[in-house]
Amino acid sequence: MMNKTVIGLEIHAQLITETKAFCSCRADVFDLEPNTAICPVCTGQPGTLPVLNKRVVEFAIMAGLAMNCTINKRSVFDRKNYFYPDLPKGYQITQYFFPIAENGFLYLENGDEKRKIGIRRIHIEEDAGKMIHQGTDSITGSSGSYVDLNRCGVPLIEIVTEPDLRSPAEARIFMELLRDTVRALGVCSGDMEKGALRCDANISMVDDSGRSSNRVEVKNINSFKFVEKALEFEQERISRILSSGGDVAKETRSWSFSSKETFSMRSKEEENDYRYFPEPDLPELIVSEDLIERIAGNLPELPWEKIERFMKQYSLPRYDATVLSSDGEIASYFEEVAQTTRRPKESSNWIMGEVMRLMNEKELTVEEVRVSPEHFKELFGLIDEGKISNKIAKEIFPFIVEGRKSPLEIVKEKGLEQIDDDKVIEDALRKAMTDNPSAVEQFRDGKEGVLGYFVGAVMKATRGKANPSKVNEIARRMLKG
Ligand code: ZN
Ligand code: MN
Question: Is the overall model pTM greater than 0.90, yes or no?
Answer without folding.
Answer: no
